Amino acid sequence: MGINFTAAIILARAWWAFLLRGVMGVAFGVIVLLFPAIGLVAVLALFAAWAIIGGATQLIGAWRQRGQAQWWVGILEGLVGLVAGFVVIIRPDISALALLYLVAAWAIVTGLLQIWLAIRMRQQISGELLLAVAGAVSVIFGIVLIISPGAGLLSVLWLVGVFAIAIGAMFFLLGLRLRGIFERAKRQNEYAERGLPQ
Where are the extended beta strands (E) located within the chain? Predict the structure, then answer.
């Protein structure tokens, strides 16, 4: 089955952004799980770096797609990541509980945006299921943090670590899928321009 090049380019041009966010997520999760003694402050600092780099990557990818349908979703998701990361850095004096709620809000908002984008793209591009699952995991993670903010520090660290690895792995797989889609769509476009059979 052929791929609609115009639809594929919406997400697939930014395949590298998904791969980078995936690698960062897995690395962050592994660090949290292997070194739980680093404490909540260190975890939040790591989260800030993850959110800022991920947000900047998302913004760059979305900006390169400007003019395409739904490109603003990537801009919004990137801005949410940047704001969350910078708040953690700029306001380290606020309580750990407030920071925990900030992480929860970030997870829920970005998760909902990913689910919405997956629904909008479901008939145009394959790989949208991974994006929807990643969004659902993110939303569930955020809700769990809000419902159980009083959980022990070690429990929270384990939850954050497992979430980061799971979401990172899904973004990595989605990045690989999108790279394949983009390369295939690009070849089909080149064949069409040359009048060659696809």
Answer: none
Tokens read off for 144: 């769990």
Q: b/e map of 69-102 (b: 16 or more CB within 10 Å)?
A: ebbebbbebbebbbbbbebbeeeeeeebeebbbb
Burial class (CB in 10 A: 0-12, 13-18, 19+), 10: buried
Can you tell me the distance from the alpha carbon of 61 to that of 67, in angstroms, rounded to the nearest whole number?
13
The residue whose two tokens read 């929807």 is 132
Q: What is the distance between the alpha carbons of residues 4 and 17, in angstroms, rounded to a whole number?
A: 21
Place of tokens 């919406």: 10
The one-letter code for the residue type at 37 is A
Which residues, 6+ apart, have CB-to-CB distance to 42 below 8 Å? none
In the numeric block, the tokens 């292997």 are attached to 34
| Reported pTM | 0.61
Q: What is the pLDDT of residues 38-92, one digit of tens each?
A: 666 677 777 788 788 888 887 877 777 676 656 677 788 888 888 888 887 887 6
Tokens of 43: 């975890």
As a whole number of angstroms, the distance between CA 69 and CA 191 comes to 24
**Using CA atoms, how far apart are residues 52 and 164, in angstroms rounded to an integer?**
15
